[in-house]
């Protein structure tokens, strides 16, 4: 193998593709989750109970579920670049429009429209990455991509908290400023996608002819060993046992990524009710610093050792155990540290999961399967936030709801270890997988 060609090509991919999609994903998650900070003011303004807030959060996932698979199938027809641009522009418009709601019903409608606009973005980017990065570097590429999501919490939560303090400027509530301001970047980035993201390696002016040839040959070799390939229809792929098991793992993982993320500021506020909204937003951001670090270390180590199953399942088990212990900890500092570990471990498996998924799937079937897996997980977003809200209203505590989350994470980790174990013949011997 030509290691120089391997290294120079991967450096080009990392420099030209990864930073831009990190920024795009940062904005996507900022617009999807900034409602958790807005809730610190918005819930009182609109007269929302915890249950009503949970329903508002969940409305996003109803439309997301409906339009996720069709969106990704369309993407394979019109091209990832054009479709991702369309997604970003429309969700930016809707997100900014959230600043205009005045009733709970209007909030529910706008969250539904936001889910419709954004449907297909995450699986679309995952599919796009799989069309550019060889298996030996895919977990690291996925970890960098998901850092955009994490940074939306590390950087975005404090920014959102700061914007929230614009309350009263021009007689406009802080949470309205929050939605209006944070919707604009998505529109701008959507236009830039058409210029920054090449459709395929053949269209990348920054790759030499030799690099393009090597990359296409390497991707072809990787795709030759997939379980569900280009010869499968997207409908038949959805019936595949591996796809269904991967969907179950991602569904259970989402109990943490959706349930904890969207309620984290409210959970921390319940632990430290005397703190200001700015302090709560900063405390809410800290767990995602751990998530960013854990994702990178886990993804890099998995690629370097060429091991997937334990890197996928064990973090999810540890996430569930950390959360379960946090619930029953009588010390606020210990409980907060355990929440940090819960979020960190929950995100740590993410790049490994999508590396495993794209190593087993290819072609249009992969695009539909990735969308299906993501869609199944979004049922958690539909049902869990309202459930957590109802439990909080009934018990005046998040403990019982979080215990459900902890059990789901542990079960998901065990299944993840089993489903991601490759057959001996499929373990890669490619020396590239040992390169840093």
Automatic annotation (TrEMBL):
Keywords: Cell membrane, Membrane, Transmembrane, Transmembrane helix, Transport. It is found in: Membrane. It is a multi-pass membrane protein. Gene3D superfamilies: MFS general substrate transporter like domains. The keyword DNA repair does not apply. The chain crosses the membrane at residues 12-30, 50-70, 82-102, 108-129, 141-163, 175-195, 243-266, 278-297, 309-328, 334-354, 361-380, 400-419. This is MFS transporter. It comes from the Bacteria. One of its GO terms (molecular function) is transmembrane transporter activity. Residues 17-424 form the Major facilitator superfamily (MFS) profile domain. The keyword Membrane applies. InterPro entries: MFS, MFS_dom, MFS_trans_sf. Coiled coil: none annotated. It holds the Pfam family MFS_1. One of its GO terms (cellular component) is membrane. Its main location: membrane.
């Amino acid at each position: 193998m030509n290691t120089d060609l391997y290294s120079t090509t991967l450096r080009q991919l990392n420099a030209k593709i990864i930073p831009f999609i990190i920024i795009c994903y940062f904005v996507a998650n900022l617009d999807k989750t900034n409602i958790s900070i807005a809730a610190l003011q918005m819930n009182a303004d609109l007269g929302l109970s915890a249950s009503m807030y949970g329903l508002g959060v969940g409305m996003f996932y109803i439309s997301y579920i409906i339009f996720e698979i069709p969106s990704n199938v369309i993407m394979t027809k019109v091209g990832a670049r054009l479709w991702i641009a369309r997604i970003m522009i429309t969700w930016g418009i809707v997100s900014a429009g959230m600043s205009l709601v005045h009733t709970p019903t209007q909030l529910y409608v706008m969250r539904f429209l936001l889910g419709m606009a954004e449907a297909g973005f995450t699986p679309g980017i995952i599919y796009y990455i799989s069309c550019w990065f060889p298996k030996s570097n895919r977990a690291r590429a996925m970890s960098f991509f998901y850092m955009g999501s994490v940074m939306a919490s590390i950087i975005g939560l404090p920014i959102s908290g700061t914007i929230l303090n614009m309350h009263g400027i021009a007689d406009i509530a802080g949470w309205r400023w929050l939605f209006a301001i944070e919707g604009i970047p998505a529109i701008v980035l959507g236009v830039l996608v058409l210029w920054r993201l090449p459709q395929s390696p053949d269209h990348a002016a920054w790759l030499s002819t030799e690099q393009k040839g090597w990359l296409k040959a390497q991707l072809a070799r990787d795709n030759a060993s997939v379980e569900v390939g280009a010869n499968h229809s997207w409908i038949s792929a959805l019936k595949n046992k591996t796809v269904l098991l991967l969907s179950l793992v991602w569904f259970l993982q989402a109990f943490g990524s959706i349930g904890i993320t969207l309620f984290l500021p409210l959970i921390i506020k319940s632990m430290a009710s005397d703190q200001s909204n700015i302090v709560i937003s900063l405390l809410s951001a800290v767990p995602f610093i751990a998530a960013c670090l854990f994702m990178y270390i886990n993804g890099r180590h998995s690629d370097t050792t060429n091991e997937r199953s334990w890197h996928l399942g064990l973090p999810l088990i540890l996430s569930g155990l950390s959360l379960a212990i946090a619930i029953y900890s009588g010390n606020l500092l210990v409980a907060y540290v355990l929440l940090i570990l819960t979020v960190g471990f929950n995100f740590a498996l993410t790049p490994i999961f999508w590396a495993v998924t794209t190593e087993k799937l290819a072609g249009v079937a992969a695009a539909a399967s990735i969308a299906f897996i993501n869609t199944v997980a979004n049922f958690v977003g539909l049902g869990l936030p309202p459930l957590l809200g109802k439990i909080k209203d009934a018990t005046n505590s998040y403990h019982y709801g979080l215990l459900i989350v902890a059990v789901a994470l542990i079960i998901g980790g065990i299944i993840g270890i089993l489903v991601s174990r490759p057959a001996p013949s499929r373990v890669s011997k490619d020396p590239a997988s040992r390169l840093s």
